[in-house]
Amino acid sequence: MPALVSAFFATYAKLYPTMKPYEYGFRVFLLTYCYVIVSGYKTGEFMETAVSRFLLIALGASVGLIVNTCIYPIWAGEDLHNLVAKNFVNVATSLEGLLLTLSLNLSF
Asked: In terms of Cα–Cα distance, which of 21, 74, 94 is closest to 86?
């Protein structure tokens, strides 16, 4: 029953523009959940199926990461440097705000 409700909401999530990028990932997660449940229904080997599925996902992610960083990089040179610098500035600004909030809460 929870899978049916989740699938219902995942189907209609793509109607909202802010949720559209996450809809595909949610569907993959839901299909993996259904795959593990259905494959272990008669045999009762849920963990074996879940572990093999996790290892296949980890293998695919690592191959994709290695190809995109070592063999055929997506970005090169100045563009990558500018993007990393911009992201570090955003992280630093976020951490400064967090530390300021924490220090104000601790002073009271």
From this structure: 94
Question: Do residues 3 and 11 touch, judged by C-beta distance below 8 A?
Answer: no
- Work out the pLDDT band at 53, boundaries 50, 70, 90: confident
Sign of the torsion angle spanned by Cα atoms 70, 73, 79, 80: negative
Query: Which CA distances in Å does 75 have to 62, 70, 89?
Result: 18, 11, 19
Q: Above pLDDT 70, what percent of the chain?
A: 89
> How many angstroms from the chain centroid is the CA of residue 82?
24
Q: What value does the CA radius of gyration of the chain take, rounded to a whole number of Å?
A: 21
Give the CA count within 13 Å in the CB-facing half-sphere of 27: 12
Q: What does the mean pLDDT of the chain come to?
A: 77
pLDDT tens digits, residue range 4-15?
777 777 777 777
Rounded Cα–Cα distance for residues 24 and 70 (Å): 27
Q: Above 60 in pLDDT, residue 78?
A: yes
